[in-house]
């Protein structure tokens, strides 16, 4: 077959041959690069596969050790956990704790079973402290792996641990310190669907957890954990946000109802109130306030993603997160404070933390005020009305006053003599009547978003002009105030919808 002259001339052209050689060389180099990248990813994948948990979420402890030191530590741990370890050596290592807690206190700690949920900066320091202090059964729950950025705050992780599960990293390092400690590793994400299993008895026993540590930084799983512990009467302590904090003198332990000036504790408190948990959970939180020049939550810069390397060692592919500025010392202080509380509680050592707000009397007063105003409002349409009920609890009052309005009038920002009152005048059909006389129930159709926070003087003025004289809101308040109230009412609707969906 005769070749086309144009094609023959093109193939004979030296410039074409040079171009073809360049293209072929480029393709070869690209193939080598892609092949190398594929090989590297394969190595990382192989490493990760060795740490993948079994179907029950437990990590295999018998993987081949990384080096001779690991092999020695694992062998020593197996002997110690089997009982082949001198008790006098253990007591010598725990001698300072034994003197402080007394022998009976240390015995209680050594017999304890503690669950740590979240093994990052806070959880790792809490776990390390518990292991060093004598706790002998520790269940670790975390789905994540150690990353390079973890090393500024993790208690024991080293460069050699990057890419390995956080639960495995803690066990690997801590058995070199306290080989007699038994670890139950669960490399999985905590949520309400698996709460019963992950917070269940110790392996092959009926021994329930003596204490649960919440070191989760995700609001949904955090609330699920605390709600489960509250409902099942499991002792728990929760760590609030350590990010963007820098003042260790402002970190305290108190009831969840007393926590302030921290976004995570505020969100946790709101969600818990919506599911019926208002108090009874100790938390570690910071009273430090934000200010000029202080760190704030920032988005991950887009140029970091364009580099193509972000997430290589992350928990999941293409998982975008926001950068939370963290001073490496602060998660350690939070974690050690958490562990300190657990140790004192388990051993019976006396402690006395900050008292609660003591606002129950205020909530009762505001509840009664709302009911009284509702009765007066409905008498405008039903003059002989008596015995009106309102679909509200003192817990709802607490949520509105403390969480939605931060204890201040939405009109002026004044925080004294505050009450709740309807924003708009109810209609005639706002009354619900069930049954017949004499067994009749009358109640008001009242939602959280119907109520706003004012001082008592402002509420009296509002009631007189809006409800009795029929004035419009625009006649009494400026546009800025009305917009501020509308924004609060939207939030109240959102929280009420969340509560109804549970």
TrEMBL record:
The keyword Cell membrane does not apply. It comes from the Eukaryota. The chain crosses the membrane at residues 16-36. The keyword Transmembrane helix applies. Keywords: Membrane, Transmembrane, Transmembrane helix. Residues 96-354 form the THIF-type NAD/FAD binding fold domain. Residues 52-71 have a biased composition (Basic and acidic residues). InterPro entries: ThiF/MoeB/HesA (IPR045886), ThiF_NAD_FAD-bd (IPR000594), Ubiquitin-activating_enz (IPR035985). This is THIF-type NAD/FAD binding fold domain-containing protein.
């Amino acid at each position: 077959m005769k070749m086309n002259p144009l094609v023959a001339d093109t193939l004979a052209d030296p410039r074409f041959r040079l171009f073809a050689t360049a293209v072929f060389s480029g393709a070869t180099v690209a193939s080598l690069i892609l092949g190398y990248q594929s090989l590297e990813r394969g190595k990382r994948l192989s490493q990760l596969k060795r740490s993948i948990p079994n179907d029950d979420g437990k990590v295999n402890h018998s993987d081949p050790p990384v080096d001779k030191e690991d092999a020695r530590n694992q062998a020593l741990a197996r002997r110690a956990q089997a009982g082949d370890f001198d008790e006098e050596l253990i007591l010598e290592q725990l001698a300072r704790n034994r003197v402080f807690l007394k022998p009976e206190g240390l015995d209680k700690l050594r017999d304890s079973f503690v669950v740590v949920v979240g093994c990052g900066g806070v959880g790792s320091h809490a776990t390390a402290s518990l292991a060093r202090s004598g706790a002998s059964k520790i269940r670790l729950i975390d789905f994540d792996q150690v990353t390079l950025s973890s090393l500024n705050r993790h208690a024991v992780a080293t460069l050699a641990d990057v890419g390995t599960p956080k639960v495995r990293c803690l066990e690997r390092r801590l058995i070199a310190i306290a080989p007699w400690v038994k670890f139950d590793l669960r490399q999985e994400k905590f949520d309400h669907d698996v709460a019963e299993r992950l917070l269940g008895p110790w392996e092959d026993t009926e021994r329930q957890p003596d204490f649960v540590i919440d070191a989760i930084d995700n609001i949904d799983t955090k609330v699920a954990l605390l709600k489960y512990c509250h409902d099942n009467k499991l002792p728990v302590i929760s760590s609030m946000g350590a990010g963007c904090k820098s003042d260790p003198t402002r970190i305290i332990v108190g009831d969840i109802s007393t926590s302030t000036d921290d976004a995570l504790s505020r969100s946790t408190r709101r969600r818990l109130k919506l599911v019926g948990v208002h108090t009874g959970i100790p938390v570690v939180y910071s009273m430090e306030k934000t200010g000029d020049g202080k760190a704030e939550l920032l988005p991950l810069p887009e140029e970091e993603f364009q580099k193509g390397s972000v997430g290589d060692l992350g928990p999941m592919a293409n998982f975008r997160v926001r950068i939370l500025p963290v001073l490496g010392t602060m998660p350690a202080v939070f974690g050690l404070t958490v562990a300190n509380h657990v140790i004192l509680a388990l051993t019976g050592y006396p402690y006395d933390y900050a008292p609660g707000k003591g606002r129950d009397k205020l909530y009762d007063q505001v509840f009664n005020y709302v009911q009284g105003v509702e009765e007066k409002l409905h008498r405008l349409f039903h003059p002989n009305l008596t015995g009106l009920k309102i679909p509200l609890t003192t817990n709802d009052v607490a949520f509105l006053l403390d969480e939605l309005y931060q204890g201040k009038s939405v009109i002026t920002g004044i925080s004294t003599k505050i009450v709740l009152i309807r924003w708009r005048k109810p209609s005639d059909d706002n009354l619900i009547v069930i049954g017949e006389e004499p067994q009749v129930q009358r109640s008001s159709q009242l939602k959280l978003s119907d109520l706003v926070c004012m001082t008592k003087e402002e509420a009296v003025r509002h009631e007189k002009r809006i409800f009795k004289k029929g004035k419009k809101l625009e006649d009494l308040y400026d546009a800025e105030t009305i917009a501020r109230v509308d924004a609060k009412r939207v939030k109240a609707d959102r929280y009420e919808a969340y509560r109804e969906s549970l």
